[in-house]
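Box 3.1. Reading complex inputs
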Amino acid sequence: MWHSLSNIFWLGTKELRSLFGDVVLIGLVIYSFTVAVVSEAQSNSQELHHASLGVVDEDNSELSRRIISAFMLPYFQTPVYIKESQIEPLMNSGRFTFVLDIPPNFQRDVLAGHRPALQVNVDATAMIQAGLGSGYALQIINTEVVGYLARSNPSEASPVELVTRIAFNPNITTAWFESVMGIINNVTMLAIILAGAALVREREHGTMDHLLVMPLSPFEIAMSKIWANALVIAVTVAVALYAVVQGFLRVPITGSIPLFMGGVVLYLFFATAVGLFLGTIARSMPQLGLLYILVAVPMNLLSGGATPVESQPVWLSTIMKASPSTHFVSFAQAILYRGAGIDVVWPQFAAVAGIGALFLALTLWRFRAAVGATGT
Amino acid sequence: MSIAAPPVAVVRHLSQHYRDVTALDDVSIALPSGCVIGLIGPDGVGKSSLLSILAGARAIQRGEIVVLGADMADRRAREQACPRIAYMPQGLGKNLYPDLSVRENIAFFARLFGQSRAERDWRIAELMEATALSDFADRPAKKLSGGMKQKLGLCCSLIHDPDLLILDEPTTGVDPLSRRQFWDLIDRLRARSATAMSVVVATAYMEEAERFDWLIAMNDGRILATGTPAELKAQTAAQTIEDAFIALLPPDASRHQAAMPVKTELDPDHEMVIVARDLTCRFGDFTAVDRVNFQIRKGEIFGFVGSNGCGKTTTMKMLTGLLPPTAGEALIFGRSMEAGNHESRRRVGYMSQAFSLYGELTVRQNLVLHARLFHLPHDFAEKRIAELIDRCDLTEHVDGLAAELPLGIRQRLSLAVAVVHAPDLLILDEPTSGVDPVARNQFWRLLIELSRNDDMTIFVSTHFMNEAARCDRLSLMHDGRVLATDTPDGLIRAKGAQTLEDAFVAFLEQDAGLDAPPKMPIDASSPPAPERRISGKPARFSLRRLFAYTIREGLELVRDPIRLMFALFGTAFLMIVFGVGISTDVNDLTFAALDRDQTPESRAYLAELRGSPYFVEKRPLVDYADLERRMKAGDIMASIEIPPNFGLDIKRGRTAFVSAWIDGSMPFRAETIRGYLEGTHQLYLGDPAVKTTRPAAASPVNTEIRFKYNQAFNSIYAMVPTTIALLLALFPAILMALAVVREKELGSITNLYVTPVTRLEFLLGKQLPYVGVALVNFAVMFGMATLLFNVPLRGAILPLLTGTIIYVFTTTAYGMLISTFCRTQIAALFGTAILTVLPATQFSGMLVPVSSLSGVGRIIGMGFPMTYFRPISVGTFTKGLGFADLGADILILLVFIPVLIGLSLVLLPKQDS
């Protein structure tokens, strides 16, 4: 027992030295937690931001100008006046996502109570902006018209008012969401790559044979790779949370970071075990890379970190709800945004650890056969 | 041999440095023409550098080289000379393609030299006949034995009738019989050739050097001596070339030439340490080791001798328990070494064939790590490590990184590591391959000491005969079988031979005689072949050379199942994942109500929500604590609270309030929920069934939201065409980058350096198969889009197809560009993935329309091809557009092709640096 722990420890220190000797992988780690996270966080992809807007003002009245000037940054770019004949070509080319068409005599008809029609053309192939933007447009137009009328006609309050408040992210900022999701995706990616590469590298260099001939068990070898790689990633995650997310991006984190880090460690156990398992399947580094793309990309994309799990077809969401990456996204959101405690997230922690143990068992089962068969 | 003729090559003041290592130091020499010139010396003294510069594969740093009258520093002159030179780089079959058959490999080189089909066919037939490879014409190169690979390499080199043949260690690791046959073959081919081809050859076997016409002895980047073998031996008064070479070395390099310890006789009654009985190992239908038997006594040095690939390593792996035997048994200390037998493992030290230490650790760290893993007591470990550092002469390197040590010192370190726990048995797999004679002698001195002084049993494999002669007993191995086992003297006596090598050759011949008589199709008396050189300088651009690479790449791709599966089905798999899994249609939103009013009015309000197709109601909330807990747990995404007196307020005409909490952890979803709640709220207000004292005013304007192109506003119509654009950016780029870097990593890039093929032909030739793969991918994804996802093509097919073809040329060219600055396949893979995924998902309109981007993101987007293809894909599929609207995008894509390929050309060197 003591011997085993000591072996795992000493092998792990060697693992750390190997990792820091691999410039490509270290570069990948640094890139992932800086450039990639910041660029995703600042992408504004989750909100309506700088949507391009063209207007055809055939009325040119006080009301029409009032409506147009209400479309403002940061939601909409400054509106560009175009002719009606230009609507089609400019929307076809993707120059404008929205085109507002105000018909002639609009103001007169509004004042006369004719309920004139006002057209908002939306490029429905710009998925997120189209959906959010059309709602904003409706609201802006309504507010401006009602406000315009109210000058002459004191407004009547609506009989029922809906007051909506957003919990956990009151201003609905993309960076709050994407920065943490970016880190989560990186954890999956790096854990699989680093652990898988650590195994394949030893096999390619012949040092794995060397280890297996010594009085060491596959369990000790696997555990040493798990702890060393997981440690590096866990430390990087903590630094990225404090320095990049809280420091550089100024995202406030309400929940308990230590509790989240506990979850990260459990998840790293799972993800490094998957990496080792892939390492026993791949016969070379390029093969590991190709396998990684086919395994990690779906795991990340479908985990709920990109689009909601509940939008998936039932069969797929059922599968994905069993995936530790989905649990990870879900408990990360619960802890970091909603301030949930261990009483809320423990079932997910347990599930991640359990599935991790399963992959470790699979890895050990494949270990000797896979490693022995590679030599010439 | 006519030394009077002008020299075949002249080298003046050549110096070559790699970082701070000096490979060649002011070398000047003239190589006589028309003879076989041997280049001898230890590893890493600059032999390979000199040869690759002679061949034009490596750029000259300082000095002047004239080969066949052409100045090799001048590109034009080199292009003229290269077709007259043939070069076989070091490493068995390094410039060959393992997945291609014998015939396909030779044909590839024939095409590179622009030979027509007819010329190619008779030349290939003739060469295969001459080298007795005809019977194996369709066998993949990777399944050839070492000797046959050698011959294949020679065929590929000789396909264009060179005047100068440059061979870099062509026979290393090949069995002695094949080695002899190889040199006989060279002699016959030279005798037959009309122009007395010159041959320059580097070799690690000093015995071979005896038969060359003229020798160059090199050490440490300098030339020690030149002359015929006889001259060199006379000059140093040595018996053999090996002794002559050692005598030529400066005194400090040979200072460890202490006498070998005397081997004492072994006690024949010692116990058996290793017993192998009918040990057999099969991989599929290939028998690597066939019923091998031997027994090794305690304290014995037992040798395993044979060529590369004869089963030595496999046998050792079975002994050490790394590989389970298919049949038979291997006992060490009377027990099998199966998994979990830690007892026996503690008594074994192992040194595997490849350098198996951790290069990123220092000498001392390596030793300490292993001492710890064997749980040596601290004090003992300290003493033991100090002793080994002294004994293996590692004192001056103790804090150097293992990876940076010269090979000979690394081997000593490997040995020290293998014996750190004082094992009873030491298993060494080719410990000295690649090590120079001086270092080899030192290494063997250590081995003999360990055996005699420490009573260690040593089992060692080698392909050097002079090492084999130092063993107590040895087994001669060939083709997975043990031919004979005895003491060295016993084996020599058994065949009545002069040397151990002769004895081994005799055993091999006897063995071969059982199968088939060796073919000797050409003898020196056969008439010289007619003059048939196709004269003229090579064309600037040749489709034949380009297609040589296309055909080669295509064949290799078809034969690598994993890459092919990835290329063809990877996109289909990810298309399903993206198409099905990524949706911005938000449905099944969970909410719960906290109805603190419980009046018909409050229930009417909630009924409006319950009727919405977007919402799913969960069990009602009990109180605020319940609300908070369930929001935190993610059980509900929204809560609706209706306060007390809601109904009463409505009846009395006071404004009544409803408050909603929305989970903001996913911003896009929160925004959408807010929109839906507002919508439902408006519906409620407009519902005539809602009886309020005041009629709700209808909106004064009728705002029509027209969702153009996608009336149902279903994300799949945008997602699927975008996914096609994304996957066509990712996969072809990765495959292309891997294809180029693979050649760099495996060494076959040399063919680009030394044959007339140009960089443009090389790149385009390799690109075409991947353009083809990408188009197949497109066809599959197009089918999936229309049939599986029901996303019909609204526009015309022609603009889409035109755009796609141009697009896949740009994306493969993008991978090509990345490959020019990657050294390893893994770097190429991740480099391409990162440099594709980030611009593709963030800056090409996938999530955020390009028209909303600004700053750096906009610039990156403008420089990435997908920005122009996504409008084409979405435009034709969903917007129903044609050439009129998409022409500009197609033209911009077209401009990318020459730009990306041009940049790749500039960055890809035509010579190694």
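In summary: Chain B touches chain A through 141 residues (CB under 8 Å).
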